[in-house]
Amino acid sequence: MIPEINISDYNYPLPDERIAKYPLDQRDRSMLLIYNEGNISSSTFNNICGYLPEGYMMVFNDTKVVPARLHFQRESGAHIEIFCLEPVLPEEYVSMFSCTDRCSWKCIVGNVKRWKGDTLRVYNPENAPRLAEIDLKADLVERNGETSIVEFSWNGGVPFSAVLEACGQVPIPPYLNRDTEEIDLERYQTLYARYRGSVAAPTAGLHFTESVMSSLKSKDISIQTVCLHVGAGTFLPVKSERVSEHTMHREPFVITLDFIRTLITRLGKVIAVGTTSVRTLESLYYLGVSCIEKGVPETVDQWAPYSRDYEYTTLQALEALVSYMESNGLSSLQTGTRIIIVPGFKFRIVDVLVTNFHQPQSTLLLLISAFVNGDWKRIYDYALANDFRFLSYGDSSLLFRR
């Protein structure tokens, strides 16, 4: 049964001055809230290993943020901003970034009403030679409500990944209320970012340094990675009063066979770094159920966890996923999830969560509430009362599931 939840119950006062507009000088010097067995305390992030049990498995999302915000100009002089959301043609990320002359994306277009269907050219007021050489153009293919399909074309035979690097900007969150700056090129990216595709950073990972990673290894904590490309829906608050009316965006992710095999050996000892890792991990159960019942792992539906009682154990579901991949000769699986995690969700894989402090009335706050069995308000009251910094560049929390 779909949970009946009023989003207004997940509001809290967040003064603008509590939103961290810039990162700290050192990543691991952020404050750390620890929530364990209902007890709340604080430390600094570089001490996080002292609060982690030995022998656990820590899962990171190694997606990489792409400079997906592009600025164009009409012949009339009007400026048009295009924010690339996800590839359309080709649909697969690796193929997309390898294109050397044209490709299509699903985008959010600013001032779209001022775009009359003419071809746009990349904004280049200083006539930079590299931008002039690439000569990036945009054509409006189709409008679908709040999003549009845009075809890009360019010169030079360079891959689209290089086009974005030359022409695009890192799309920092809109609630920072500032333009992208030089510091964001490095700091709005995790140290372990590897696979291009996200338009928002998995910000829980921004606190990790080489020093912290070394201390994890010394405590026999297995470091593993998944890759879920974070979409712009991460920025969006729930606009409907009832959460049941909110539509979750699909986010693609890749999982390897070796990872699932390792996960099976660490069940009951899993730490997720960030809500994107949680959504990926918890989706694996439903992919396994799909393998058992339909023979193939289908994209996880938003409300699948709440639709019925599932009789399969986590181990059975994961083993079914392994069996499917082995029988089809797959070393990795590319799929997607629309899963929404709200109070009433049954966690089957994640035991501990490292995460930042999230926006009021957001799906991420609903996930936190589900994880701590409704105790989110006390955690956030503590953070507000003790000068924690909020949102993407803000401080961190270590939450043990209740």
Describe it.
There is one protein chain. The model has no long low-confidence stretch (mean pLDDT 94). The two termini are 22 Å apart. The protein contains 10 helices and 17 strands. Helix 7 crosses helix 8. 24% of the residues lie in helices and 25% in strands. The protein is globular and about 60 Å long. It has 402 residues and is of the alpha/beta class. The strands form 3 sheets. It has a 9-stranded mixed beta sheet. Strands 5-6-7-10-9-8 form a 6-stranded antiparallel beta barrel.
- CATH fold call of the largest domain: QueA-like
From the N-terminal CA to the C-terminal CA, the straight-line distance is 22 Å
Second-tier CATH architecture of the largest domain = 3-Layer(aba) Sandwich
Question: How is the biggest beta sheet arranged?
Answer: 9 strands, mixed
Give the domain tally. 2
Order of helices and strands: EEEEEEHEEHEEHHEHEEHEHHEEHHE
Note the total helix count. Answer: 10
Q: Gyration radius, to the nearest Å? A: 21 Å
Catalogue the unreliable spans: none
Class based on secondary structure composition and strand pairing: alpha/beta
Q: Kindly state the percentage of residues in helix.
A: 10-25%
Number of strands: 17
Side-by-side strand order of the widest sheet: 2-1-17-16-14-3-12-13-15
What is the CATH class of the largest domain? Alpha Beta
CATH superfamily membership of the largest domain, which one?
QueA-like
